[in-house]
Amino acid sequence: MPDSAGSAGSGQAAGEAGLSGPVALDAADGLDATVEALRRARVSHPLLAEGVPAGEPAWTGPEVAWIGPEVNDIAVDPADLAEVTSPVRVGQVDALVRAALGTAAAVHTVPADRPESPTGGVGALLRHTLPASV
Q1: Where are the alpha helices (DSSP H) in the chain?
Q2: What is the pTM of this model?
């Protein structure tokens, strides 16, 4: 998967999807892209690596995420939640699952040891494909 909230190669051209012009990505790969997609409630199926022990981070990087009162208030850096007066520090997997379930997404686990697995064990399929200008 690419390292951004981008196309995982859906194989569908803009014209086939009923869109004109270039098509933006329909998958998020990696922590930052997945968190951004969750914040925008665009995730339909978050993908988390299998075999992550309880209480451990799902990927290399900070062991925590930050959340606010709304289900899609999620960030890797509390500065990204400027509209939240007191973000709460929580475990990454907990924050991802909370945001996913709160936005009606179905959480899935995927093998961690396959080349097509998401970068760092975190990714997502998005609800819809948007024109690149959105």
Answers
A1: 31-39, 92-102
A2: 0.71
